[in-house]
Structure formats: C-alpha cells, structure tokens
Amino acid sequence: MKNFKKILFSLLVLFSLQFGLGGCVVDGGGYYHDEGPWYHDGPWLYGDGWGGDRRGGGHIDIDIHPPGFRRH
Amino acid sequence: MHTTSIYHRLATIVAVATTMLGIIGFAASARAEKFPPLNDPATKETHPGKFIWAELFTNDSAAATRFYSDVFGWTAVTLDQHGVAYTVFNNGSHPVAGLRQRSASSTPHASRWINYIAVTDIASSLSLVTKAGGEVRAPAREFPQIGTQAIITDNEGSPVGLLQSSSGDPADDEPTPGDWNWFHLLAKDPLSAAAFYRQVFNYNVAPDARTEKKNELLFSSDELNRGGVSVLPDRESAKPGWLGVIRVDNLDETLVRVRTHGGEIVVAPHNAAFGSRFAMIADPTGGTVGLVEYENNANPVNRP
Q: Is A67 a member of any domain?
C-alpha cells in the first residue's frame, strides 16, 4: 500500500511538473516558444524615416511601377 | 519530530504546489491559440523568391488593427499566445498579413512592415546573408502552423523576412483587391542591392524594360516578376527599405477611407505602368504601404 502511494505521488509530481513548467513558460517578446526573444528591438526595425519624412508635410517623390500579375 | 513525518509533510506540500502549478500551466497552455496556416488545405507548391507573408511590427496594435480593417476590409483575428497578442488579417477567406505588438518596454517608433520571401531551405539561405553583406536580425524559428521564419537586413540595412512555409507556398494566382500585389525596394545603390538579393535568394535580375533608367531592376523567379528595386530619393532623412503594395479596386475611394481613419497620403496618386494608378500611404502608427489600382481592374501579364 505504501509503495502504491509513493508511485502515485511520484506520477502526480511528474505530471504536474510537465504541464506546470511547460505551460507557464512565457516568452519575452519572442512569441510561442521558450527559446527567449526572437529578435532584439532596434533602429533596424523602426519605421521612422521610411516612407518619407513627413515632418513639415513633405512628401517623397518615388517612382514605382507595380506590374500586373497573371497566372502563367 | 520523526523523520518520516517531516518527509510526509514535505511531500504533501510539494504535491499540492506542483498540482497547482500544473493547473495554472495547463490553463496557460490552453491560451496558446492555433495559428491559421498560410494555405488551408496545404499546397504542394514551392515558389522560392515569391513574397508570401507580411507582418506589421507596431507599438499600437489596436490602432493599426482598426485602420487596416476599416480601410481594406481585412478581418482581424487576434490570437492569444501566452499573454502576447498576435493578430492575423484575412482578406476574404485567406490570411494576408500578421501584426506583432512590439515589446511593451520598447521606445515608441513608427511601425514597420516586414515582408517575407519564400525559401525552401532557410538555413542555407541564411548562411549566405553575412557573406553577401547583410545581417541576421531574427534567427530561424519555427512558428506552429506557419513555418520557419527569420528576419535579416540586407547590405543597406533594409529588413526583409524569410519564410519556409509548413503548408506550401500560395499559388501564383492573380491577387484580388485587398491582396499584396507588388513589393518594391528603394535602395541607395540598386545595383549593389540587386547583387545581394541575387546571391541570397537566387533571383534573376534584369533591367525594367518599361523604363530607360539603368538602375531600375526587376527580381524574378519561376519566370515571374517578384519584386523590383529603384533608387531611393536623394534625401538625408529617407531610409532604404521594402514597400509592399496592396491592390485596391478604387484608389480614390480607398484614399478617402485612409484620411477618414487617420492615415496619411505620403505619395499622391499618379499614373504608372500598365494603366495603373499608384499612391503611397502611412497608417496612423506610421506603417507605410503602397496602393495600386488597375484600369478597368484588368491586370496585365507579369513576365520578365
């Protein structure tokens, strides 16, 4: 009986640890995984300046000709 | 106190604590909602070089979600990932973009769209980035349902993503209004930038026959144009970068909605190739996209 209780207790601990520790992992900005942040925020990701400097209402003059598209 | 008694008390405490942890953990796990795959059902197609996904990195996901839903009619589905929100935008029945909330501790900056290029072997592609003068900013990571993603900056610092989709690549069908239609790089030195993309993504690079400018180039794969590059306006404040262009069925009406919902017209509408009209806008959080409308909604052939 004592051995049965010990086995039951051990199983309970293992089960709890698996779900408890696995589920409680929260990624710091990395999303979905426990591997740590996926990226480090920095100027490379800032949109400032891209798309034109709109301070003073200035617009950039870009020349883009998007092509059409058709399944080949 | 007897040793056995202490053991039993400790055992009881541990059992209760771990059970509580288990319940909390299970609840937290349950909050990780499933992502929709890019293609449902999965395709067996691969189109390396094709732009297949886009994500907006923003400090204000609520404002951005409202704007893109109101202006383009995209349906937003926000998924809770252990307390971190990720929004999927659907155009009709298919996902077209994602929205990542930048970390709460980060300094507020204008949002930025990152466009993802399909690859078949992400490790192999990433191994070429540094040699070509770029930098890996977010290493390859598998995201359930979507695939393995990475973000790099090219030889001029423009960020772009790589995605090895776990549900295949979308077919080369004609984009419908509300879909991404084109991707364009504005670079300080288009020739040097083109060399980078040829090396990393194996693009065929050729001059844009529609213009006489030698530094306007088209990137193609599978005998289809995937993107282009032209020179960045000579202005100190302008940064090189990729611009995703969304197809709309009525540019003027879309621009009215842009203004109504707090956006800004960055490049005024003007005529472009193939009878198209083009404009560029910024959403209220600073994210920029291009818009294109085709005459009579007729889309011409897109071949190199």
A: yes
Burial (Cβ within 10 Å: 0-12, 13-18, ≥19) of residue B18:
buried
* Residue A31 CA: distances (Å) to CA of A36, B111, B118, B141, B166: 9, 18, 21, 10, 18
Query: What residue of A is the nearest CA neighbor of B182?
Result: A66
The amino acid at residue B14 is V
Confidence at A55, pLDDT banded by 50, 70, 90: very low
In a domain, A48, yes or no: yes
Q: Is residue A9 part of a domain?
A: no
Q: Which of left, alpha, beta for A56 (phi over 0: left; psi -120 to 50: alpha)?
A: left
B207-233 pLDDT tens trace = 877 766 677 899 999 888 899 998 887
Structural domains counted in chain A = 1
User: Coil, strand, or helix at residue B169?
Assistant: coil
A2 in contact with chain B, both atoms CB, cutoff 8 A: no
Distance of alpha carbon B57 from alpha carbon B114, whole angstroms: 7
A17:B111 CB<8 A: no
Is B51-297 a domain of CATH 3.10.180.10? yes
**Average pLDDT for B276-299:** 87
Amino acid B30: pLDDT = 47
Cβ of B230 and A62 within 8 Å?
yes
**pLDDT tens digits, A4-27:** 777 766 766 666 555 545 444 433
Task: Decide which of B30 and B176 is more confident.
Answer: B176
Domain region containing A46? 25-72
Q: Does A25 reach chain B within 8 Å, measured CB to CB?
A: yes
Q: Is residue A64 part of a domain?
A: yes
The domains of chain B are located at: 51-297
Cβ atoms < 10 Å from Cβ of B49: 23
Task: State how far the Cα of A31 lies from the Cα of B31, in Å rounded to an integer.
Answer: 13
pTM of the model: 0.81
Above 0.90 for ipTM, yes or no? no
Q: Which of A25, A63, A71, A72 to mutate to test the interface with B (most CBs of B within 10 A)?
A: A63
| Mean pLDDT along residues A29-52 | 70
What percentage of chain B exceeds 90 in pLDDT?
61
How far is B173 from B171, CA to CA, in rounded Å?
5
The Cα B241–Cα A47 span in angstroms is 9
